[in-house]
Amino acid sequence: MSETSPKLRAELEGIPTYKPGKPAAAGGPAAYKLSSNENPYPPLPGVMETVTASAASFNRYPDMACTALTAELAERFAVPVSHVATGTGSVGVAQQLLQATSGPGDEVIYAWRSFEAYPIITQISGATSVQVPLTEGDVHDLDAMADAITDRTRLVFVCNPNNPTGTAVRRAELERFLDRVPGDVLVVLDEAYREFVRDTDVPDGVEIYRERPNVCVLRTFSKAYGLAGLRVGFAIAHEPVAAALRKTAVPFGVSQIAQDAAIASLRAEDELIGRVGSLVCERNRVMDALRGQGWTVPDTQANFVWLRLGESTVPFAQACEQAGAVVRPFAGEGVRVTVGETEANDIFLKVAEGFRKDL
Ligand SMILES: Cc1ncc(COP(=O)(O)O)c(C=O)c1O
């Protein structure tokens, strides 16, 4: 066999690997998975029926243009059909945005710590990541992000609410930031957790997009709508960004099952939003309990909470796992804990209480 191997792009060297949330081990002590910000509710029966019916024709390719889903989304958000672009999860769409805007020599700005896919997909594109630290309060430092813009900047991610801290930026500060961004730099408002936001000062990105041609909004069916395993997300963006997303899409990337399930979910929105309401109540309960135990926890507008634990992060995550719930540690920084089933949240709270006493 030849000693040489195929030449790969140098940009791929040293790419951090995406760490998916650890599953709850079968037969192990950890019965609950609070590590991936998933929706703990099982699929709605009506959505299940749609998926089952759709599965009967998976010998056929899906509708490549996601025509029906796109039309439904356009109506739902009152935007032109040509401004909606679907993809394999919103992370798939984010990657397409990078392919469409950024390459070697270009810069991509985002807060840090934020969604762990940003450095990965930026590096794959060949562009350079410019990470702007969160403030002391774990919020985007939008002034510093605006200061970081250069004539090489092509794209800025604003993760609102931010993963993993759950913090959100408010309307006035976001507008002030956007006023400072040159019109030829794309600002991506990643709103994967939008449906969980209850702070009325946190703007709906779709309203902001309407006024600003360089703003694009990312949304997903993975979280509030509970379709994480089916991989469907979308962007709302002006031309020519939306057109570029259609060019960079993997052909037939969104399965027909995913398209049909997404449409069925939009039509079952009342029921799904009711579930989101219950999760928000549960989130408030968890936050109150943590604060009652003496923790300083940043305000979360998402379906997870962030505990800054520093060196205790890994032992804390291990203790949770032992007690029956898998959480997501970021070694040396903190743990992100998804709001899940009441019993799972109680397991986490009990471990937190024990740790607090030992601090
Ligand atoms: C901020 C943020 N954006 C995007 C995504 C990607 O979600 P999906 O690709 O499932 O739509 C996630 C998932 O965890 C996320 O936290």
TrEMBL record:
Record's keyword annotation contains Transport: no
Domain of life: Bacteria
Keywords: Aminotransferase, Pyridoxal phosphate, Transferase
Region described as Disordered: 1-31
InterPro entries from the UniProt entry: Aminotrans_II_pyridoxalP_BS (IPR001917), Aminotransferase_I/II_large (IPR004839), ArAT (IPR024892), HisP_aminotrans (IPR005861), HistidinolP_aminotransfase (IPR050106), PyrdxlP-dep_Trfase (IPR015424), PyrdxlP-dep_Trfase_major (IPR015421), PyrdxlP-dep_Trfase_small (IPR015422)
Function: Aminotransferase that catalyzes the conversion of aromatic amino acids and 2-oxoglutarate into corresponding aromatic oxo acids and L-glutamate.
NCBIfam families named in the record: hisC, PRK03321.1
Protein name: Aromatic amino acid aminotransferase
Source species of the chain: Streptomyces fungicidicus
High-level lineage: Bacteria, Bacillati, Actinomycetota, Actinomycetes, Kitasatosporales
